[in-house]
Structure formats: C-alpha cells, structure tokens
Design goal:
Layout (H helix, E strand, L loop, with lengths): L6 H20 L4 H17 L5
C-alpha cells in the first residue's frame, strides 16, 4: 500500500486500468458491462482471505 502514495505509481495504475477498459470496450463490452465486471471483481477479491 505504501507504493500507492507515490504519484507516479498512481498515474501508472490509472493508465493501466484505462488500457484494460479500452480493450474491453474494443471487445464489444458496454460501459455498464465493464462496470458490472469491475463490481464482481472487487467483490471476489474482497472476499478472499489471505493467510501469510
């Protein structure tokens, strides 16, 4: 999480997310489909328990 405090890393992550959204859009997914996919992804990731 410390890396998220760095502006350069934040911009890089935003750019990468934008590129992925563009790829999904080019594949025929609508904005609402992309949004729904993101909601599902967040729910799945948040439900994972990490024991390290």
């Amino acid at each position: 999480m410390d890396s998220l405090n760095e502006t350069d890393n934040q911009l890089l992550l935003i750019r990468q997310y934008g590129e992925k959204h563009a790829q999904m859009k080019d594949s025929g997914m609508s904005a609402s489909m992309i949004e729904h996919f993101g909601e599902i992804a967040v729910a799945v990731i948040a439900s994972q328990v990490c024991f390290s």
